[in-house]
Design a protein that fits this description.
2 domains; disordered N terminus; disordered C terminus; about 220 residues; Rna Polymerase Sigma Factor, Chain: A
């Protein structure tokens, strides 16, 4: 991260003051709905967030996913309520990333230590049960309806092509004439909106898991 909050100390007091002033400005602009400030936030802190996460996990894919989740959480917070000390924005972002990483590790540990006998039995049977098929059909219908409700066609296409069709990022960036930072911000917003729409329709955790394969 560019200065405070990730272990990289500013070289002098002037750098620290400049960083604090920039953080206050960005946080204030995001609170007013300035999407340009959101892009600047990601551009300014994305590399530092990835560094924090890669220090905590050897899985680069997990680090990238948690990086996106970090900015979703941070943007939600800045849109809804100001930080007590916006000058410490970098530290807030870094701590959010660490908290998400800790949560991910705890969930992974629970999955490894908990034996689900029903899951083991169902894994033996390749054919899905009627209940499982009904859940899949319901999730598929819900996700399709939610994709239609997304206001931005670009967000919708980003979700479908990147997450479901697994198209390479550089191809999508070239087609839409986007930088990598701009593309990541589109994904942040698209995932944020999708979660909001799923919650509005009363979707549960199992429906969220179905998002990756229901279409």
């Amino acid at each position: 991260m560019t200065s405070t909050g990730t272990g990289n100390l500013p070289s002098d007091g002037s750098d620290a003051r400049n960083e604090a002033a920039a953080a206050i400005e960005i946080a204030g602009r995001i609170a007013t709905g300035d999407t340009g400030a959101e892009t600047e936030l990601v551009r300014r802190y994305e590399r530092g967030v990835l560094q924090v996460l890669k220090c905590g996990t050897p899985d680069p894919d997990l680090a990238r996913d948690l990086c996106q989740d970090t900015f979703v959480v941070v943007l939600r917070r800045l849109r809804s309520a100001p930080l007590e000390d916006p000058a410490r924005l970098a530290g807030f972002i870094a701590q959010t990333a660490r908290n998400l990483l800790i949560g991910s590790k705890r969930r992974s540990a629970r999955r490894m230590t908990s034996i689900d006998s029903e899951a083991i039995e169902s894994a033996v049977d390749e054919a899905p049960s009627r209940e499982q098929q009904a859940e899949a059909d319901s999730a598929s219908t819900l996700v399709r309806r939610l994709l239609v409700e997304l206001k931005s066609d670009r967000d919708r296409q980003a979700l479908i092509r990147f997450y479901l069709h697994e198209e390479p990022k550089d191809r999508i960036c070239a087609e839409f004439k986007l930088s990598e930072t701009q593309f990541n911000l589109i994904l942040f917003r698209a995932r944020d909106r999708m979660r909001t729409l799923l919650q509005k329709h009363g979707a549960g955790p199992r429906d969220l898991l179905c998002l990756a394969w229901a279409l």
